[in-house]
């Protein structure tokens, strides 16, 4: 068996795919044209190979037209471990790829554990975020604040992850409720029956995958940018921040009827109305979000105050929380 045969057995890639993957390992990132020239493969074929490498987890999109290799120990390590007794020789190929990777130029920018990775462009962010979500085993936690640049989760992937037992929690900045385009994200999350809460203000936009990785969207002018890290200190810090703000945020209704207490007749639509009211929205903003008239909102708030036997909206908020009118 030749050296290339060993590499193909370890990676599961065909000859041209492994050649391009090895080229990627020697660079911080590279364009399609650059890789096509160096590999001797036509640009169209190179683009197809790169798309397959991204789908297979061997590469990521660093920008809309640039690609970056995933470290061999990440993409191959778990596979090789599962087949260790049957295919011990694959570790030789892994070590060879690791040496190429360690000798590559450029500080950081790779998908190594503990390092920072920067992704530029909406298409690249969508691709990378999809890969991160797909790797989730237990939870996905998200800070959502306008303007929304990070793409809305893919519906099919979202349902598959839910079926696998992944828990989704979204903490929305209250300002999202003041923007109709951004409110689409909220409506979709409610349809998926994710856990949702509202915070008065969020300090940043981020996504936390399990306790293993964090993506933070950079607030910079121009093309959207995001940074990703698996550094445990950073992941633990962002997770702690999420949990701290989550405990003090206002819950949105989870669509689970029967949360009423003391025999009070709170209609299903009132749960969301009360959540928005407690979150601090104006009557006009609530009417816009619910698609009803301003007078309808004011009338229903008055009826809820009468039902709760209170005189002020602040008292209504306390009563709603105490008696289970909001989760």
Automatic annotation (TrEMBL):
Q: GO molecular function terms here?
A: DNA binding
Which InterPro entries does its entry note? Sig_transdc_resp-reg_C-effctor, TrmB-like, Tscrpt_reg_LuxR_C, WH-like_DNA-bd_sf, WH_DNA-bd_sf
Query: Domain HTH luxR-type, which positions?
Result: 263-320
PANTHER family found in the cross-reference section: HTH-TYPE TRANSCRIPTIONAL REGULATOR TRMBL2
Report the source organism. Glycomyces buryatensis
Name the chain's protein.
Answer: HTH luxR-type domain-containing protein
Domain of life from the UniProt record: Bacteria
GO BP term (any one) = regulation of DNA-templated transcription
């Amino acid at each position: 068996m030749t050296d290339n045969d060993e590499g193909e057995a370890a990676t599961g890639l065909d000859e041209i795919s492994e050649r391009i993957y090895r080229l990627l390992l020697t660079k911080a990132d590279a364009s399609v044209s650059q890789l096509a020239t160096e590999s001797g493969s036509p640009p169209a074929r190179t683009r197809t190979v790169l798309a397959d490498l991204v789908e297979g987890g061997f590469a990521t999109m660093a920008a809309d037209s640039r690609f970056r290799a995933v470290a061999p120990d990440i993409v191959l390590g778990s596979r090789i471990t599962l087949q260790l007794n049957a295919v011990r020789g694959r570790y030789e190929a892994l070590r060879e790829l690791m040496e190429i990777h360690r000798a590559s130029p450029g500080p950081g920018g790779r998908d190594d554990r503990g390092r920072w990775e920067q992704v530029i462009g909406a298409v690249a962010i969508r691709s990378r975020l999809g890969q991160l979500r797909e790797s989730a085993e237990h939870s996905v936690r998200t800070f959502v604040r306008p303007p929304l640049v990070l793409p809305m989760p893919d519906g099919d992937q979202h349902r598959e992850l839910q079926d696998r037992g992944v828990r989704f929690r979204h903490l929305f900045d209250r300002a999202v409720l003041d923007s109709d385009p951004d409110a689409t994200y909220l409506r979709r999350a409610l349809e998926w029956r994710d856990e949702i809460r509202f915070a008065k203000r969020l300090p940043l936009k981020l996504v936390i995958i399990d306790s293993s990785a964090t993506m933070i969207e950079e607030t910079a002018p121009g093309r959207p940018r995001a940074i990703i890290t698996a550094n445990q200190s950073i992941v633990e810090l962002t997770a702690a921040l999420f949990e701290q703000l989550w405990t003090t945020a206002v819950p949105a209704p989870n669509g689970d009827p029967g949360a009423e207490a003391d025999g009070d007749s709170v209609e299903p639509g009132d749960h969301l109305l009360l959540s928005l009211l407690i979150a601090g929205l104006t009557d006009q903003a609530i009417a816009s979000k619910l698609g009803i008239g301003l007078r309808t909102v004011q009338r229903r708030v008055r009826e809820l105050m009468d039902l709760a036997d209170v005189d002020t909206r602040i008292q209504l908020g306390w009563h709603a929380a105490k008696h289970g009118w909001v989760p």
